[in-house]
Amino acid sequence: MFKFLKDVSREMRKVTWPRGSELVSYTITVIVTVAFVALFFTVVDLGITQILNNMPFLNN
Q: Fewer CB atoms inside 10 A, N or C side of the chain?
């Protein structure tokens, strides 16, 4: 267990962390992408719901 933690510590020192400006840029990119995908699937879901609601054999 201690060898594993020592190896993890050694590897973490090799990591190149993003600078502040890169972090902000990546964060904005992720938020915009998630918002776009959420909007896309909302529109698709509403479209499929409308199609299924307008099928006469599905309405009771």
A: C
